[in-house]
Amino acid sequence: xxxxxxxxxxxxxxxxxxxxxxxxxxxxxxxxxxxxxxxxxxxxxxxxxxxxxxxxxxxxxxxxxxxxxxxxxxxxxxxxxxxxxxxxxxxxxxxxxxxxxxxxxxxxxxxxxxxxxxxxxxxxxxxxxxxxxxxxxxxxxxxxxxxxxxxxxxxxxxxxxxxxxxxxxxxxxxxxxxxxxxxxxxxxxxxxxxxxxxxxxxx
Length: 203
Known about the structure:
The protein is of the alpha/beta class. Helix content is about 55%, strand content about 15%.
């Protein structure tokens, strides 16, 4: 049987990574087979592309270049890691997937959504997550949570950039209610975790 593909989305500082960790702990405790991964990245080639994408020294990167690099990374990641794991019946937990491209490169960079549609279908081999959890927080909350760490190229973008990202995530969630579950990222992490387990029918 095909495994379950679970993705987490949200702006910077939304709490995605914390919820991924809690879910992984649950899967470990219950000895459920899984693969934990992230985007950009997940495989050696995709991680090498990630280093370029997030390097603050690459500030001159064009939005079009950024879009193509994200999709190059995604194609390698999906073909090498995600699809084989799903075919093996494993649960795949991914910190970001193609919805982030619609939010960051589509909405915030103002790139053509139809081009993104075409690239996404090609780079994902038409793979769609079974469920996506959107950790939603106000931009000022998310940015305040990351202010004391070394920021990558996208984290350094202006407040208005991150606001566009948040609005696009909420727009996608509204358009795809069967796949998306929006969670209040300002709630207690354990409460959010329990909501996720209920949505996955794990409790």
